[in-house]
């Protein structure tokens, strides 16, 4: 009983600290900062890397082409050697009745060289074709934008002197597994990279969301272009770190009119989404993996276990402490559930979801040790490339 009592007390203390001392990571009020229209709207190039995305393009690409942007803008879709007709479909959508007003360029990059991830190689090719665009909107092929999304991103960046403005797209939550896992995915990301800390000028924390990142052209050039992060599996965080290290100002928040249209119909696709990069997030470190497993267990699994064991054995101390920690945990999860329009009672399921994430993280490490590494769209990155190792030293 003594061990359970002390462990449950430690878990409660950790949750109290997380609730008030960890950048208020659980709050969902980090939205686009105050917007101010610039005197002259800058030129923007929207770069969309796409590999086998024919299934989602009809729901995403027309929203980019129909952007209500007062300045000069164009869309560059980089068809990364797709096998499903992604490039042809993109061209047909642009020529169709819903094509919108922005011009579209469809291009294919040269074969993928060693040391690059596919997405970053495609982005580099798109950026090279962006001409004299002053801003680059890097957005994924499964992201749908509201009609004024680009305008508001640029106004927020120009009006606040920012070099990188990123919004975490609202992911789809239609199936039962999506409702269970997706809000927690964003919650855990915010816990790892508290948005307030990331948005603090000069702070050490830096993060971005790869689905929607508007970067100033000069800031990207200052860090050495996309090549500076060419081997990074978690490219969005790597980009934010590089921009911030170079003296740039970054901002990250939750989206209001940026949504992912990619479906995750079952547990398998969601599992792969998390496990493909979880071990890379831990810098492929066994020590960090062990610490993560112990940390997740202490923070998320001990409270319900202490409550259940305490009630079953009549040990009221662990039961009270475990129940209190579980209550604080659920309370911090409620804002994210509201953001995703999910019922409040789902907050009590967070320990179960955390257990799934723990298993996904362990599976990510196992796949790496088996030489499969981070696999995505038919490509596998078995070990970090040189830029990723440089990033870890920074």
UniProtKB/TrEMBL annotation:
Keywords: Glycosyltransferase, Membrane, Transferase, Transmembrane, Transmembrane helix. The chain crosses the membrane at residues 282-303, 315-337, 344-362. Gene3D superfamilies: Spore Coat Polysaccharide Biosynthesis Protein SpsA, Chain A (3.90.550.10). One of its GO terms (molecular function) is glycosyltransferase activity. The keyword Transferase applies. InterPro entries: Glyco_trans_2_hopen-assoc_HpnB, Nucleotide-diphossugar_trans. Its EC number is 2.4.-.-. PANTHER family: GLYCOSYLTRANSFERASE, SLR1566 PROTEIN. NCBIfam families: HpnB. This is Glycosyltransferase.
């Amino acid at each position: 009983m003594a061990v359970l009592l002390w462990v449950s007390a430690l878990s409660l203390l950790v949750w109290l600290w997380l609730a008030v001392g960890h950048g208020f990571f659980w709050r969902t009020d980090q939205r686009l900062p105050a917007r101010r229209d610039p005197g002259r709207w800058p030129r923007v190039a929207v770069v969309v890397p796409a590999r086998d995305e024919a299934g989602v393009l009809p729901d995403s690409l027309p929203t980019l082409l129909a952007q209500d942007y007062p300045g000069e803008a164009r869309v560059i879709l980089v068809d990364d050697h797709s096998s499903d007709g992604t490039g042809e479909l993109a061209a047909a959508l642009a020529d169709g009745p819903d094509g919108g007003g922005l011009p579209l360029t469809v291009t294919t990059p040269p074969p993928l060289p060693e040391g690059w991830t596919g997405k970053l190689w495609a982005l580099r090719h798109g950026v090279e074709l962006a001409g004299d665009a002053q801003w680059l909107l890097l957005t994924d092929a499964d992201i749908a934008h509201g009609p004024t999304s680009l305008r508001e991103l640029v106004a927020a960046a120009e009006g606040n002197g920012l070099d990188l403005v990123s919004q975490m797209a609202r992911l789809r939550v239609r199936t039962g597994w999506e409702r269970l896992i997706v809000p927690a995915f964003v919650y855990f990301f915010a816990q790892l990279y508290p948005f307030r800390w990331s948005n603090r000028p000069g702070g050490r924390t830096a993060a971005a969301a790869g689905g929607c990142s508007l970067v100033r052209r000069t800031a990207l050039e200052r860090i050495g272009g996309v090549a500076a992060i060419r081997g990074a599996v978690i490219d969005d965080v790597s980009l934010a770190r590089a921009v911030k290290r170079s003296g740039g100002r970054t901002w990250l928040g939750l989206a209001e009119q940026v949504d992912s249209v990619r479906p995750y119909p079952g547990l398998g696709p969601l599992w792969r989404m998390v496990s493909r990069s979880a071990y890379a997030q831990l810098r492929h470190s066994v020590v960090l993996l062990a610490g993560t497993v112990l940390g997740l267990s202490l923070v998320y699994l001990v409270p319900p276990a202490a409550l259940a064991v305490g009630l079953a054995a009549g040990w009221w101390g662990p039961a009270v402490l475990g129940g209190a920690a579980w209550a604080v945990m659920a309370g911090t999860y409620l804002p994210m559930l509201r953001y995703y329009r999910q019922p409040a009672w789902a907050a009590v399921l967070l320990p179960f979801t955390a257990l799934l994430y723990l298993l996904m993280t362990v599976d990510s490490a196992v796949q790496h040790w088996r030489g499969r590494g981070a696999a995505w769209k038919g490509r596998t990155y078995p070990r970090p490339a040189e830029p990723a190792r440089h990033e870890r030293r920074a």
